[in-house]
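Input chain follows. Return structure tokens only.
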Amino acid sequence: MISRERVLTALKLGIPDRVPWIEGIIEDGVASRLIGRKISLNWSIAPNGLPVVSGEEQAEIQKEICRTLGKDNINYNAFAPIYAEKIIDKRGKVIVGRGLIKSWNDLKMMEFPNPKDKRFYGPAKDFISHKEDYCAVACIRLGIGATVMSMGIDGFSLALVDYPGLVEEVLTRYANWTKEIIPILEDIGFDIFWAFDDVAFDTGPMFSPKLYRELILPVSKEVANTISIPWISHSDGNMNPILEDWLTLGQNGIHPIQPDCMDIFELKKKYGNRICLVGNVDMNILINGNQEEVRAQVERLIKEVGYNGGYIISSSNSLTDEMKVENVRTMIDVIQSLGWYRR
């Protein structure tokens, strides 16, 4: 099978030739060490909403990573802008800081790329024209992830009490923009969507199940209902209290099933005939563990969660610069040696 077929088969709960491997983010440092030369995978976005690196260059760099590692996906970011402070940490990386949307007056800063402007899709078309046999992923947000980042979790929570209409307005603006770009991205030729909307902490959801069902879920469903190709939904944290609600979105896969607060093996038993599980090689082991620990965990995931298909292996969030290269290589070796269903 080619990579695209492998991922699509797993998302449809079938048995591919081997367990597919996909990642949402690979940081520059670990990617450079793995392939043996300095590269950059994390591209900034210009004020007009277009990436500063061409779609062709994005695809070519990611294909090099896939060829070297045996990974199956290449990603194109189709996110609406986030309105939050940008903080440079001690490693020189940009992280999202305090949300800037605090009042009705702040809505004037929410200027999105025009979803009807054909020029906006030029880099995406270039990306797809160079995807080859890899699974081309359009990374999106259904709305709530961008809303929380742009308002900040504190600002979001306070506004729910003081200005509930403001929360609904911000959420709706993000959702409506994404609804407009989804059918166009499908026509361009992306194979799957991957929706990144964090709604949980390690201890449980950011919101009460009641609030999730009444405010967030209906808007998320409106966006999800526009999707006609396979898709994966992502949220870190403990999703167990709202898992059944989350699954009503109709996604084909869920990621990353964070291992320190969710049990992927129990989910396989309960939901394995209903949803593709995407995850969840423990980042902490890849960072602080040894090769034997990595091997044991990846072997167990392949044997138990990969049993009878419907499984895509992935880190429990992303591949970061703090990870030991030898641990990541061990993960790769186990996938390549033990991940085959048939040869």
